[in-house]
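Teaching assistant's notes for section 4

Start the section by putting this record on the projector. Ask students to predict, before seeing the second block, whether Carbohydrate kinase will look compact or extended. Collect guesses on the board.
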Amino acid sequence: MATPTRPRAVVLGQIGRDLVLVLDELPPGGGAAPVRERHEWLGGKGANQALACRQLGADAALIGAVADDDAGQAALEQAQHDGLDVTGVVRRSNARTALLIDVVAPPGTRRLLEDIGPDVTLTPADVAAVHGLIAGADVMVLQLQQPADALLAAIEVVEGTDVLLVADGAPPDEQVREALLRAGAVLRADQREAALLTGRELAGAPDTLVAAEDLVRRGARAVALSAGADGDVVAWSGGHVVTPLLGEHPVDPTGAGDAATAALAVALSTGESPERAAWWAAAAAAHSVVQAGGRARLDAREVRRAAEEAESASVASLRRRS
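Reveal the predicted structure now:
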């Protein structure tokens, strides 16, 4: 039997240093609190999504920018140790590598502080330099916090090709949103980003579904939007599913969206249906929130097993109600 080919994923997004601080409780203004746990590692949404893609079964390349400093060197070394292709990572002089501070306290609450200078975001020239890397991929994941001109350059590379385009977040402007729809992208957004993506506040799963289906009609291949406590709505041409929030007692929600985005990208790029991909995303998100920090620690077999169990339980519940 032939060994299945691993999909090739490229992830265009932020790379930085994550500092994760776990407290028993957040101090009041002017107060202080001891740190119970401290972690420092490779972070940023782009790096987190690339690592999650790798853990879920794809060969993953990272496209982003770091400074020519010690933190940037450490980030590159960590990414290589993680098995990521870093040929698309740019080193900037006279800059400083992004720093993200994740402050976590019970019950599953966090505060995220970001120091991301414009010098460590991507430019159209950076994208042009890795044209071949992007064009040779099976799936490209775009983190939409990058500058609009760089995003438009990346979309142009894959438009009209067989490269699956998955976009995470809220587009920085209308031009990027229309380009994504024209290219038939898969769109994923959390609750705050969904409001920016759709231009209005969304209340619950039914309202979110209407908005997701509208984006599908406008050209999106599939749309995955958070509906808060109602779970996640995933819509595509001819169908939709609402997946509940899986798992219990989350420690830190920081990595849930990155894990879900990676799962959608890997599942769809390997030929899974949008419905099955939605359950992969829900399971990956649940597995990501059981520890502090956004760095992925996913087991592909465990995620698939959890997704199948959750999907089967949902089908059984629907049958009991009918």
